[in-house]
Design brief:
The protein is mainly alpha-helical and about 180 residues long. About 70% of the residues lie in helices and about 0% in strands. The chain is built from 6 helices and no strands. The longest helix has about 30 residues. It is elongated and about 65 Å long. The structure holds fe (ii) ion (2 copies). The site of one fe (ii) ion has 7 residues, from helix 3, helix 5 and helix 6.
């Protein structure tokens, strides 16, 4: 361990940094498959947008059935999913890609589904299912990224933690409602 050299010597680091400066944050040391990372992030972006829309719908519908605390939770989740969508879109641009906001094919790109639900309980259950899909797919993405793109991985880890909180909130709501 004592003789272990630093990963790259300073001269090489400095020379490499001067090449392809137009690629900005993407340096030669970036070892992930950029195209795949962008594609996977666009799927996560679609997932977030679908979740924004579903929670938004649930917020307005729940407001009508006298369930203010549940509606408030839906609105908060919707806004947080929008924040995730923005973070992911920003990272796609940083990686030299283009965030896909095309409504066409949105549901195909998204991992989670858009289910309206009739009753308050159905809405909460559908949101919980969607969160659980997001949790599993984001965990997969994190594992895929490994040490090849720590910045994207850290972002996805932060988002994953919030999705887990969302799922936990929804279970609590179901319990409060006696389901
Ligand atoms: Fe999210
Ligand atoms: Fe969520």
């Amino acid at each position: 361990m004592a003789n272990k050299p630093f990963l790259t010597d300073i001269k090489t680091l400095r020379e490499r940094a001067r090449r392809h400066i137009e690629q900005g944050a993407i340096t030669e040391g970036y070892s992930a498959d950029r195209e795949t990372v962008i594609k996977v992030l666009n799927e996560a972006l679609a997932t977030e947008i679908v979740c924004v829309l579903r929670y938004r719908r649930h917020y307005f519908m729940a407001s009508g059935i006298n369930a203010e605390s549940v509606a408030a939770e839906f609105l908060q989740h919707s806004n947080e999913e929008q924040g995730h969508a923005d973070q992911i879109a920003q990272r796609i641009v940083q990686l030299g890609g283009q965030p896909n906001f095309d409504p066409e094919g949105l549901l195909t790109r998204s991992h989670a589904e858009y289910v309206e639900g009739e009753t308050l309980t159905e809405m909460i259950k559908e949101d919980l299912v969607a969160e659980r899909i997001a949790i599993d797919s984001y965990r997969d993405i994190i594992q895929y990224l490994g040490n090849d793109d720590p910045t994207t991985r850290r972002m996805m880890e932060t988002i994953l933690a919030v999705e887990e909180e969302h799922a936990d909130d929804l279970v609590s709501l179901l319990n409060e409602m006696g389901n």
